[in-house]
DNA sequence: GACATATGTCACCAGTCGTTGACAAGTTCC
DNA sequence: GGAACTTGTCAACGACTGGTGACATATGTC
């Protein structure tokens, strides 16, 4: 009743602050879904949870996106670019890779790179049968294909897949299992980075002999 | 009624073919749970499913193991050895690593190495909050600690963690995302193996410079 | 055979889930 | 002002889940 009164009195008339604004509501739901799917499993994230955190009625989620599965699929897509890693070169891949570790979990919400958020979504819901097919397609079409096209030499697909495997394994270790063998002395951290570079090079670089 | 008649007539008297046999029932439940948890998520495996596949009443699962969480924890433990990889040296780790890829999904059931089955259980239920803590403890105590103790030189924990990260990432690629860039020509397969060896060496071997 | 115990069976609970349909309230256009 | 449409609200459905207690049946012991 308070909101209706506020609406009638129209103290904030020109700003469509997401009241009766379909696209804003959709985006709010999508943002909340991304945040939750990046933290927990596909099955452990409920539509009511997503809606509640977005300040939206749970029914609207199904109505705007059709189903939870479709919402999850939408979550993995970018609004501006069409790919998770559009134009991903070896350098950008390495950069995302590094960011995956430099980012703290207590980073300011909404500030984390959207690429990283989507990788976390990928990782958390691997193993869910319903999300599995969606993830498979997204990984193949939005990561492996673009990255392998950026590579040169032989075994491009293989090298891209192995690099992604390394990235996923490290991401799981750090973000999901919370196993941090680094983050100790600066010397250890430097050695970790050096070793990481070598692993990544062994996966990605063309073989020279 | 048929089974009871059979029991009364005692055509097979000395063999307690798991009728009124607590330990056999427990093992049957545990085996079924391992099989299911190795294929699907923690949340997507129901106690009724486990019980049904084991030919057991669903109520017995809760009664024998207390809770689904405790059953999952038991699933990650070995009956004979106490560790997932007891006495795991660098060679055995590499062997498990190789097996993870050589094994086919259509392998005869019950024939797959129990170590591999447990790694698959680990991988599938990563991302499940309830299983996460259990998995974290199992990984730390049963994999990272023994492996790092087997290593020599500096940064033992770091190297073990990075090797496990590589193993997990590759396992996810192959067994869960079904992304097989190998398995083409024998030449490609050989190059894959060579590259894999280099990656693993970069993660595990002590740095020489 | 009678009892005590171990093992298995059954019905059911409380809760959550995704989804849907009926209805209310706001917006736009005539 | 009223019709047509959009957007949001509410309550409920059916299906599922993990878990529990009452009861039935078998086994072992005297």
The main sheet of chain A comes to:
none
Low-confidence runs of at least 5 consecutive residues of chain A: 1-16, 81-88
The total strand number of chain A stands at 0
Q: Find the biggest chain interface.
A: A-B, 52 and 51 residues
Global mean pLDDT of chain A: 80
Q: What is the strand content of chain A?
A: under 5%
Can you write the helix and strand succession of chain A as a string? HHHHHHHHHH
Tell me the Rg of chain A in angstroms.
20 Å
Question: Ends of chain A: how far apart?
Answer: 75 Å
Helicity range of the residues of chain A? 55-70%
Oligomer: homodimer
Number of H- or I-type helical stretches of chain A: 10
Q: Number of folding domains of chain A?
A: 2
**Could you say which overall geometry of chain A the principal axes of the C-alpha atoms support?**
globular
Q: What class, by secondary structure content of chain A?
A: mainly alpha
In short:
Chain A has 209 residues and is mainly alpha-helical. Helices cover 65% and strands 0% of the residues of chain A. Chain A binds a DNA duplex (30 and 30 nucleotides) through helix 4.
What topology emerges from the helices and strands here?
The structure is a homodimer of 209-residue chains.
Chain A (H helix, E strand, L loop, with lengths): L1 H8 L12 H16 L9 H8 L3 H8 L2 H8 L14 H13 L11 H12 L3 H22 L5 H21 L9 H19 L5
Helix pairs in contact in A: 2-3, 2-5, 3-4, 7-9, 8-9, 9-10
The structure holds a DNA duplex (30 and 30 nucleotides).
């Amino acid at each position: 009743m308070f909101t209706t009164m506020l609406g009638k009195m129209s103290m904030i008339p020109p700003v469509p602050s997401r009241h009766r604004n379909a696209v804003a509501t959709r985006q709010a739901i999508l943002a909340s879904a991304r945040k939750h799917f990046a933290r927990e499993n596909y099955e452990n994230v409920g539509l009511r949870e997503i809606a509640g955190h977005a300040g939206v009625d749970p029914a609207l989620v199904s109505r705007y996106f059709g189903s939870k599965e479709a919402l999850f699929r939408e979550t993995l897509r970018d609004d501006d670019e069409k790919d998770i890693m559009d134009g991903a070169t070896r350098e950008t891949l390495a950069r995302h890779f590094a960011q995956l570790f430099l980012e703290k979990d207590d980073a300011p919400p909404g500030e984390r790179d959207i690429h990283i958020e989507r990788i976390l979504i990928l990782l958390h819901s691997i193993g869910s049968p319903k999300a599995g097919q969606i993830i498979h397609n997204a990984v193949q079409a939005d990561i492996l294909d673009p990255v392998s096209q950026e590579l040169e030499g032989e075994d491009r697909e293989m090298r891209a897949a192995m690099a992604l495997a390394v990235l996923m394994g490290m991401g799981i270790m750090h973000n999901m299992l919370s196993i941090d063998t680094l983050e100790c002395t600066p010397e250890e951290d430097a050695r970790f980075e050096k070793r990481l570079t070598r692993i990544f090079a062994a996966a990605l670089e063309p073989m020279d002999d």
